[in-house]
Amino acid sequence: xxxxxxxxVNVDFGVFVARFKGYREIIEEYAKQGYRYxxxxxxxxxRNHLATIDLIFEKLATNEGDI
Length: 67
Known about the structure:
Blueprint: E1 2-13, E2 18-20, H1 23-32, E3 36-45, E4 50-60
Antiparallel strand pairs: 1-2, 1-4, 3-4
């Protein structure tokens, strides 16, 4: 069985561009904890851009009591 973690990441809106900041550090940190990045889910969207996403991580649960 797998254990999942969801980490919210907000967008940093600029004049001409919108960027998600800090996602690389989040992915690296969860990898150190034994998680694997598996994708993202859009959480909130403005008229033209995603505003918030959830990064999704998984790892094998060590036993059924862990979840």
